[in-house]
Amino acid sequence: MTIAQNDIAIGALQLPQPYLLFLGDTTEGGYAKTAYGLRDWAPEKCMGEYRLAGASVTTGLQALSPAEAEAAGARSMLIGVANGGGVIPPNWVPALIEALEAGLDLVSGMHVRLRDVPGLAEPAERLGRRLIDVRHPPEGLTVANGAKRSGKRLLTVGTDCALGKKYTALALARAFADRGVDADFRASGQTGIMIAGGGLPMDAVVSDFGAGAAELLSPDAAPDHWDVVEGQGSLFHPAYAGVSLGLLHGSQPDVIVVCHQPGRTHVLGAPGYALPSIEETIELNLRMGARTNPAIRCAGLSFNTAHLDADAAEALMAQESRRLGLPVADPIRGGDAFARLVDACLA
Hints:
single chain, alpha/beta, Rossmann fold, 6-stranded parallel β-sheet, 11 helices, about 30% helix, about 20% strand, P-loop_NTPase, DgcN-like_N, DUF1611 domain-containing protein, DgcN-like_C
């Protein structure tokens, strides 16, 4: 039995949990952001991980085979990888069939539909297991109209992809709620959808309807309500700039927060392209975003400092905050720097 996601914008799909996270033979940490996101933001839904030979990426969760995970209570194996192009390589298929035979459903956020992967549909049907695709938009999307909507919106943007836009949006939405602000996290990618239970996979939308999909994702709301919208890609990425622009125009953000990983020098997946500067990123996002919201502003920066020790991270963020004249914080580290960023967003 297969399930296509046609009602994802309102979060109607209930995914079978807990998950066994499948990492395949992944060697690039940036491609495992789905698994990392679930581990960090929905740990209660994660039973363990399953890796193939050659994999160098790990979530640090308990290593389990599909049979062991099913015996421990897992209900599905979720593909925790978002690789370039969203493909499922042939060498993964035996492991996916192993999960079906162990009694687990399969959940995927890849572009390719599970039922279209050779060798999967037949055993799933025979075993009564579900093939659940999350990265497929609802039917009936329309082009954007550009009309101003009520409520307030924040969009996370970045110097590159896979550096913290989802984590930043989740952390800001939580911080807003902790302060008593009426706020919703709006998921625009497969991992966010799996965490939040609803959303719209922007990178799977036909380009003509991208901005319209973003309007649907963040509809009219009360004047004091905040939608914190998960960003995608980067305006500077040679492959993914289109989805970033559609999301920027359609979400009409009042506020952007620029996400960056210090030390990254080249665009992920495109080594011939140097990373833009923070200043370039702010300027271009504000210039393009002003087309649908002339009042757009940048509240500050979110740095991914996971590769730095605490002292080095604090010193760097303080230095960059002085240089840029904006709050700079790592939302995972939190602290006073993050509180100042939240203040600036809500100002």
